[in-house]
Amino acid sequence: MQIGEVVERVGYSFRTIRYYEEMGLVTPSARTPGGFRLYTEMDVYRLLVLKRMKPLDFSLEEMRELLSILDALDGRLPSGTPREELFDQLDDFRAAADARVEKLREKLAMAEEFAQQLRDEAAGRTGGNSPAPEPPVLPELPVPQGRDAAAAG
């Protein structure tokens, strides 16, 4: 399939797919006589793996490493590494992904809480009848002394 179809199936831009090609992560399996890139289902699979890794902030090197492990496990890449060790490495990636997903869940919970606070705030002020709440009382800051006092004032 040509790059346009891959763009539609994966949801990446032409530029992103070409970038991953330049980085050596996904290479078109063939080219037409006119030079157009041709991709296989396996190429699409690799792009989907990258797409799932991206929101978890895996680096390009980590992406490359995981693709190599998957290639070796599937027999697409010769590897002197024993299969058991490859599965251990794959499990390390699974554990890292699980940890990163948990961090994202924590961030999402915090964001949802904030959005709810804003909804509550907006609901409490509907019609302009409700005055703004008093800001919280903050502890007094120490008064700067010496050279820093001139910069503070």
Helix content: 55-70%
What is the chain-wise order of helices and strands? HHEEHHHH
Radius of gyration over alpha carbons? 26 Å
Instruction: Report the strand count.
Output: 2
Average pLDDT works out at 88
Q: Uncertain runs with pLDDT below 50, 5 residues or more?
A: none
Order of strands, widest sheet = 1-2
Largest sheet at a glance?
A: 2 strands, antiparallel
What is the count of DSSP helices, taking H or I runs of 4+ residues?
Answer: 6
SSE class: mainly alpha
Proportion of strand residues: under 5%
Report, as a whole number of angstroms, the end-to-end distance: 66 Å
Provide a compact summary of the structure.
This protein is mainly α and 153 residues long. The chain contains six helices and two strands.
List keywords for this structure.
153 residues; 61% helix; two-stranded antiparallel ribbon
Account of the protein in words:
By secondary structure, this protein is mainly α. It is built from six helices and two strands; from the N terminus they run ααββαααα. The chain has helices at 3-10, 14-22, 41-53, 60-74, 83-124, 147-152, and strands at 30-31, 37-38. The protein has a two-stranded antiparallel sheet. Strand 1 and strand 2 form a beta hairpin. Helix 4 packs across helix 5 (83-124). The radius of gyration is 26 Å and the shape is elongated. The N and C termini lie far apart (66 Å). The model has no long low-confidence stretch (mean pLDDT 88).
